[in-house]
Amino acid sequence: MKKILKSQISQLWKRINQSYELFIPIEKDNKVNFSMWQEGDQVNLEILKTNSSPKNIIFPQTETYLQFEKNGKKINMESVGGKKEAYVLFGVRPCDVVSFNLLDNVFLREPVDRFYEERRNKGIVISMACSDPEETCFCSAFGIDPENAVEGVDVATWDMGDKILWMAQTEKGKMFTQSLKDLLKEATEEDEEACVQLKNNIKEKVKNLPLSNIDMKKIDKSMKDLFESSIWEDFSAQCLGCGSCTYVCPTCHCYDIQDFDGGKSGERFRCWDSCMFSDFTLMAHGNPRKTQKERFRQRFMHKLVYYPNNHGTYACVGCGRCIERCPVHIDMVKVIKKLGGEL
Amino acid sequence: MSVEAKETVMGNKNEFEPLIVAFCCNWCSYAGADLAGTSRLSYPANVKIIRVPCSCRVNANFVLRAFQRGADGVVIAGCHPGDCHYSTGNYYTRRRFSLLTNFLEYVGIEQERFKVDWISAAEGNKFATVMNDVLEKVHRLGPNRKLRDARWKR
Amino acid sequence: MEKIGLKVRARAKEALENREVDEVMGWKKGEFWYDVYPVFITEANEADDLIWDAFCVNNLSKYLIQKQKENKKVGVFLKGCDSLGFNQLLKDNRIDRDQVVIYGLPCVGMVDPEKVKKEGLNKGLLEIKRSKDEITFVTKEGEKKILGRQFDYDKCLACRYPNPVVYDELLDTEIAREVSEMDRFKDVEAIEKMSITERFEYWSNQFSKCIRCNACRNICPACSCEKCVFDNVNAGVSSKASVDSEEQFFHITRAYHVAGRCVDCGECTRVCPAGIPLDQLNHKIMKDINELYGKYDAGVDVSQDAPLVTYKLDDADSFTEHGKGGK
Lengths: 343, 154, 327
What we know:
The structure holds three protein chains of three kinds. Chain A is of the alpha+beta class. Chain A has helices at 9-19, 55-58, 94-107, 114-122, 171-179, 189-207, 223-227, 231-236, 244-248, 292-311, 321-325, 332-339; strands at residues 2-5, 21-28, 31-36, 62-71, 74-79, 87-92, 123-128, 155-159, 163-168, 185-186, 255-262, 265-272. Chain A is built from twelve helices and twelve strands. Chain B is an alpha/beta fold. Chain B has helices at residues 3-15, 29-38, 60-68, 89-106, 124-141; strands at 20-25, 47-52, 73-78, 114-118. In chain B, helix 4 links the parallel strand 3 and strand 4. The two termini of chain B are 29 Å apart. Chains in contact: A-B, A-C, B-C.
């Protein structure tokens, strides 16, 4: 285990920035989001939940695939997607790291999404344990340990107040740690003990969270019963049909492919889509989900039933962003509880 | 600014051909443009005229879309208040685009880039003057980058 | 507020029992201290779920559009700002007044959970109670009272209509709040003072935060089109691309489209997940309408003509030299 004093942390940013693009929670206009670090930026490592999830780093909201231009009777096309620069994603919380794995299940299975794969391979993910879980956190319902390094993390870190403890987890992480060896000091035994203490504290805190009682096993009805449940009508009536929940969600990954028509030239791009929108999966005959009820159902059935059927795990990581962001407070927890017969 | 740098700026300026989109009402301003043409008055070829049935047909979206797709300046021209072919259309134009004029300036678009004016069918001269005036001002401001879609190519 | 909560439940129960209405719209408490969400109830026994507290911020009037399609007579609880939205929907012919029974609720202001969190008062918080401007924080350890409006939403601090402007029954005594009309457009004036470059910088920074979720549009009582141009794939503007020009296009269009119809309820700003101060756009248009065409407050008086659907022969304009409207 290594450590670095917080007073020296800006040196670390500078160093990483020399060979990598560094994405880190940065505070701007009272909102914290993962964005590319530049000298002078206000880094905020205390914030638990960035305003939007960091998924836009590995799965950008808009990504151009190809550009085309008319040249006489010919059309010139150029592939432009993917990521060329190596990057470091620092301070990702364990729930968000797990969300990356969930996206991997979709994009990295055959047929592999090449641009996504390229982006994933270029990145080093450094997680940070959640010293102070919040009331809207319910990652424990999905078996995520906010105190530990979860699968998919290259380096795990712990915030000890005046210093950050650092432990490489993968080969990639070890190589990266090696390249920073003059900045990272060896952690002492005391540090390691303090870390164990912190982990125990976190465990205790997680147990006492208001949402720690969520039990996914309570949703035990068949897919057909869930699909036809009356709760969709009850909740969708209040749903505004905006895309806040889907766009701040770390696991939502539906997308649309559109063309920008600029007359003589244009672009084909991929952009996030939201099942809440009326033009989601729009086909020649219209949207197969005609009312908000079907769209609302799609979002939750996808996360709690369809995805688990396909990949063996729930497509929610319990980050709680939707709880905070929904303008009318119709969120994941209410749906889980209602499906489980609790509300 | 060094002499060299100044020269490149000037050089670019000389190359800059502003694109002006003018929405002209069918009954007055379009006829005014016609008159300007038949009277052999010179007004710049960079003005692309779009004929609309009435100036109040113009939607704020038209203006924004024009800026988005390469316009350096946008003009809306209609009949003088009181002369509308449909009696009252341009009274609405007046209110709507008074607000839009101020609003675009509020979000940071130079006032000179968006112009509304009244040009009657008899005012070929005014048509040429207004267009020349807008063009000159836009030319001085340089190419418009604001609101423009970065993916759009001229 | 607790006493009024009792009234809310009693009135809803009575209305449903007597079949005065088919359905009642109100608010229900959720998981957390700030978690309150809209509910529509049809059975009298469900009325016990209804609440009235410092987090009933959602305007229920827009849901009426859907309810009218279902041809139901609906009872609805409306605050001052909500009633403005209601009037605007009436004016836009989106709802039928005869099909609605309004229970008016004078409102002293709603508490902004973000402000509570910022002060660090959310740790272990179980409930927030409000009585006029006295806010009680209930935690496991006990109660803490704070007097003042520092936790109110910004929009509530600027509220000019704490009492419903339209109602069938008022469930509480009217509230008197003094608000300076002079301060109303201070935000706009500050931006107007910037240079043109600064202004563009300011707004393009704000717009670039947009995540295109449409929450501002969907919550808005003035945005009630059957099909929004941004949902219409045939209109060529429905692009979900997160590029600057599309975001600018969206926000200018949104603000301009509600010109003269925006009731200044501030909901767009409240719900924006990216924190864009959308009300500053709406305020600019309101300020200009007031200056150019005389004072107009959307949603206050249904009989008054909206400024953009009417005109005067001698109107000022802001674009010709003789128009004298100026900026």
